[in-house]
Specification:
By secondary structure, this protein is α/β, with parallel strands linked by helices. The chain has 2 domains: 207 residues, Rossmann fold, CATH 3.40.50.1170; 116 residues, Rossmann fold (3-Layer(aba) Sandwich). It contains 9 helices and 18 strands. Strands 4-1-5-7-8-9-12-13 form an 8-stranded mixed β-sheet, sandwiched between helices. Helix 3 packs parallel to helix 8. Bound molecules: aspartic acid. Aspartic acid binds next to loops.
Length: 349
């Protein structure tokens, strides 16, 4: 590992995404291309004076194809290179970036180095690309140290345009704006403008120095159920009886509200009694579940549904995958869903 004055050593893990795509001359659609193409388009990287190595997915993928095996591949690549680098930059498609950022935050226990995820809305070869700036800034963040020479960021974060945000607090909020990601319920870790201004109070600090532990047995037997007016009892029952399902992230209205009528509450109570863990998360982009505010939300809590407070949907579903993946019982999963594990939700006190 570099000391305070030596060149930063950064490993780029290129998974694919728009940042590295080029247009197929026949079909005119964007397709992932290899890393050398990407780096050839950013000659300024050499000006950073960092030691940069890279590994890439073979083939690079559109992040819509991202899955549990890919998350494991990323996490294991970080683990096997952990002692040789000061920081890691993951180049990733934007579509599922918030899910990967959330998943990695749970999978990389005791992380004490920067894992910075970025990508772009326009391919790096395009004249108006945002990819060049995002890549360069992500590398700078991965190399940043504080006055003591320690890594400034010691967690999984997304760098995109003007924002450095905690990975498990992030959501993709725009399909076409350069500022495509936001952390709505938690302050930015840094503001990126003329300077990169870190918000040191918001950054995670694990001073334990315990060795990195990778958890990559994520359990896919979880799902979202999104409420909408007009949903029927057979639909709800069908979803809740999905074979093998262990956990449901229930996307409710407003401050965690749902219908209070028997067509809804009875199947929910039956599922909870069967041992299905149900986590109440709001459909709203901003704010939190407050089960004490309305009778309709309180009924869910009394039925044994857990409040997700201000957790994002992306963090909620990946947290469930992680907890069930550790072989926990429903009761244990419920307990840990109410605890903040790595900065993903606000808890009282
Ligand atoms: N479909 C692309 C992906 O997620 C979109 C992007 O990278 O912006 O891989």
């Amino acid at each position: 590992m570099s000391n305070e004055t030596s060149r930063a050593r950064i490993l780029i893990i290129y998974t694919g995404g728009t940042i590295g795509m080029i247009e197929n001359p026949e079909t005119k659609v964007l397709q992932p291309f290899d890393f050398s193409h990407l780096i050839d388009n950013v000659p300024k990287i050499k000006m950073l004076n960092f030691d940069i190595d890279n590994i890439q997915f073979d083939p690079p993928i559109d992040s819509s194809n991202m899955g549990l095996a890919h998350w494991s591949q990323i996490a294991r690549s970080i683990e096997s290179n952990y002692d040789n680098y000061d920081g890691f930059v993951i180049l990733h498609g934007t579509d599922t970036m918030a899910y990967t950022a959330s998943a990695l935050s749970f999978m990389l226990e005791n992380l004490n180095k920067p894992v910075i995820i970025t990508g772009s809305q326009l391919p790096i070869g395009e004249v108006r690309t945002d990819g060049e700036e995002n890549l360069i800034t992500a590398l700078q963040v991965a190399a940043a140290r504080n006055s003591k020479g320690d890594a400034m960021v010691r967690e999984v974060a997304i760098l995109f345009e003007n924002h450095l945000i905690r990975g498990n607090r992030s959501s993709k909020v725009s399909a076409d704006n350069f500022n495509a990601f936001m952390s709505i319920n938690y302050p930015d870790l840094a503001r990126v403008g003329l300077d990169i201004t870190y918000n040191e109070d918001a950054l995670l600090r694990d001073i334990s120095n315990r060795p990195l532990i990778v958890h990559d047995s994520m359990d896919p037997n979880v799902m979202f159920i999104v409420l909408y007016p007009g949903m029927t009892r057979p639909t709800l029952e069908y979803l809740l009886k999905t074979p093998g399902i262990k956990g449901v992230v229930l996307k409710t209205y407003g401050a965690g509200n749902s219908p209070s009528e028997p067509w809804f509450t009875e199947p929910i109570i039956a599922a909870v009694n069967r041992g299905v863990v149900i986590l109440n998360v709001t459909q709203c982009v901003n704010g939190a579940v407050n089960s004490n505010l309305y009778d309709t939300g309180n009924k869910l809590a009394r039925a044994g549904v857990i409040s997700g407070n201000d957790i994002t949907s992306e963090a909620a579903i990946t947290k469930m995958m992680y907890l069930f993946g550790k072989g926990m019982t429903s009761a244990q999963v419920k307990k840990y869903l109410q605890r903040d594990i790595c900065g993903e939700m606000t808890t009282k006190g």
